[in-house]
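Researcher: Go.
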Amino acid sequence: MTTPKPSKDKAKAAPVLNAFAGKTDAPDAQELTLALGPTRALWDKLVDSLQHKLAVVQEWGSSSPRAGWSLRLKRKERVILYLVPQHGSFQAALVLGDKAVKAARESKLPKRVAKTLAEARRYAEGTGIRMAVKEPADLAAIEKLALIKIEN
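Model: Structure:
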């Protein structure tokens, strides 16, 4: 008797659980702190650094209550980086155009980030990258990708 092969659909990654799914208003500072837990310090460090280095501004946004809220770090009208709050961590997401993808591949990124970039899905608007942020070492690569996006 043979064991059936798992369907390809089961191989897909589980969806990201936004800490503010179902919420109709943008989270306040206290709600964000409660959701992020100890990673709130990393969130603040990343936001502060990108504001200082890249002159980004913050804007909370949600496409629907079901999807939850994300912090958009923008330069003029261009979204540079999305920060998606989760319970106990957060994700950084960005979309890179072809020139930025080429520059990122040529830069010295950590192996894990280079692998994420190599496996990233290509969409009409560019290549979408999502990275979990759980420790300080994750921040430098995210900042580097944000700078590459601006420069390209």
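Model: DSSP finds five helices and six strands in the chain.
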